[in-house]
Amino acid sequence: EGISLAVHDRIDSTNSEIARRWQQGETGLLVSVADCQEQGRGRRGRPWQSPVGQNLYMSIGATIGRGFTQLEGFSLVVGIALIESLKLPEGAWAGLKWPNDVLVHDRKLAGILIELQGELEGAVRVIVGIGLNVHMKEEASVDQPWTSLGLAVPGQSWRRDRLAAGILNQLVDRLHDFEKSGFAPFSEIWNQYDLFRDKKLRATSGDWSGLGCGVDESGNYLLDTGQGIEKINAGEISLRVA
Ligand code: BTN
Fold first, then answer.
1. Residue 232: domain span
2. pLDDT given at position 237
3. Is there an atom of ligand 1 within 6 Å of 57 CB?
4. pLDDT tens track for 164-199
């Protein structure tokens, strides 16, 4: 089945648009991109600032031949696909903040919002939403330290069409690998991008604190508490540098 791409000047949220397209009976791999979003959504119910003409807002709707319970680590795989597609220069200080934020010099460059739709005959529909700051303007009001490709890696043209194509290619490949083999083969790759490694961390809920040790073969984050290794489950708790 082919890819069907829809490009919008303005939309509420590209993630919502994928859900609507499925409702309308579209099939295959669906991609929606927009020049701006009026109700861009981030993780944990936060808004995602989506000003016009500056950044990439893109969602991919795909069917993964795995059950709900076999999706552990999926969101980390998307993070790997995203950061690798950008081909950032060595020494750009880029990495992943568990589970899947892309940071450069401790500032957020891109975020990923994954939404799952119903399971049908052992397959799950996933909506992968990617917000990538490309040429974000200084005055934008964002509640956390951020950067953009233009600021972090100047001197490249950073065209949004090429970025979108690169992300899509990389993601489709990685999704196939994940569908076949799950997260385990990705854990070492993910750990190469781990920005929490050897940092003192604490979980925002729960009592855990310790040193960052990377992820295990299921994508759980490992904390060395001094009394043993504690596993932090994706989706349940978030981690901060202490
Ligand atoms: C995060 O909180 O880090 C995730 C941000 C995800 C934003 C993208 S922009 C395209 C897609 N549509 C949305 O409404 N959100 C995602």
1. 200-241
2. 61
3. yes
4. 999 999 999 999 999 999 999 999 999 999 999 999
Query: Which atom number of ligand 1 is nearest to the Cα of residue 50?
Result: 9
Which residue of 13, 21, 41 sits with most ligand 1 atoms within 8 Å of its CB, as the best mutation to test the pocket?
41
Q: Are residues 50 and 25 in the same domain?
A: yes
CATH number for 213:
2.30.30
Q: ipTM more than 0.90?
A: yes
Q: Indicate the average pLDDT of the chain.
A: 93
Contact, 198 vs 51, CB < 8 A?
no
Whole-model pTM?
0.95
- Residue 59 CA to residue 82 CA, distance in Å, equals 12
Q: 125-159: string of b/e by CB count within 10 Å (b at 16+)?
A: bbbbbbbbbbebeeeeeeeeebbbbbbbbeeeebe
Taking the centre of ligand 1 as the mean of its atom positions, its distance from the CA of residue 100, in whole angstroms, is 12
Do 157 and 96 fall into the same domain? yes
**Ligand 1 lined by 133 (C-beta under 6 Å):** no
Ligand 1 neighbourhood includes 51 CB (under 6 angstroms): no
pLDDT band at 233 (very low <50, low <70, confident <90, very high): confident
Check if 66 is active-site: no
